Amino acid sequence: MTKIAFIFPGQGSQVVGMGQEFVENAAESKAFYDRADQALEFELSKLMLEGPAEELTLTYHAQPALLTTGVMVAEKLRTAGIHPHYAAGHSLGEYGALVLAGVMSFDDAVSIVHKRGLYMNEAVPAGQGAMAAILGMELEALNAVTEQVSASGDAVQVANVNCPGQIVISGTKEGVDKAIIAAKEAGAKRAIPLVVSGPFHSELMRPSSEKLKAALAEITLSAPEIPVIGNVMAKELKDVSAIQQELVEQVYSAVQWEASMREMIAQGVDVFIECGPGKVLSGLLKKIDRSVAAYCVYDEASLEAVIEASKEWSINA
Question: Has 61 been annotated as catalytic?
Answer without folding.
Answer: no
